[in-house]
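[AMINO ACID CHAIN]
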Amino acid sequence: MERELLETFEAAKKAADAAAGEDDSPEAERCLDALRRLRDIRVNTDVLVSTQVSGHPDPIFHGCE
């Protein structure tokens, strides 16, 4: 579960960074797809703490708006 969370989070972040400032880019769609996958991953407090995803300083949402 931790690995899936980290891989999906990194995919969303990478796509968001690439899509920042672009309208209707394929990267924005990839970001949204990754965010949808993140929503479906079952996560508990222990996983969030061990992966430190919840405290990530760079929000991934800037490129997905």
Remarks:
- The chain has a mean pLDDT of 79.
- Residues 19 and 25 are 6 Å apart (CA to CA).
- The radius of gyration is 12 Å.
